[in-house]
Amino acid sequence: MAQVSIPTDTDPAAYEVLVECWRAMTIAERADLIDRLNADVELLAVTGIRAQLPHLTEPEVRHELARRRFGAALADEAYEHHPA
Questions:
Q1: Are 82 and 74 in contact (CB under 8 A)?
Q2: Residue 6: what pLDDT?
Q3: Is pLDDT at 74 greater than 60 in this prediction?
Q4: Contact at 8 Å (CB) between 67 and 75?
């Protein structure tokens, strides 16, 4: 079994409630939660790119996101073959 590490900024009782909520979820509910969390992280990343590089077009923002996610070589290769 994996060792559980309670976040230091979280009350242990509150963390236990959270874990129990996760355990009560169905697989579909967990998958939906993960999808929503991934979408939120992507939105934060795109927002950060737009704040740092406001001159980029939308396709350039997506390319930059891919560079940050997958590395420059892979992203550049993919976007070279699929230009905006």
A1: no
A2: 87
A3: yes
A4: yes
SS3 64: helix
Q: What is the pLDDT of residue 32?
A: 98
38, two tokens:
């991934």
Query: Which contacts qualify for 65-70: CB closer than 8 Å, 24 or more apart?
Result: none
Task: Report whether 24 contacts 40 (CB < 8 A).
Answer: no
Alpha helices in 1-57 (DSSP H): 12-24, 27-52
68 half-sphere exposure, CB direction, 13 A CA radius: 13
Query: 31-64 pLDDT, tens per residue?
Result: 999 999 999 999 999 999 999 999 999 999 999 9
Residue whose pair of structure tokens reads 């939105």 in the numeric block: 43
The residues near 49 (Cβ < 8 Å, ≥ 6 apart) are: 56, 61, 64, 65, 68
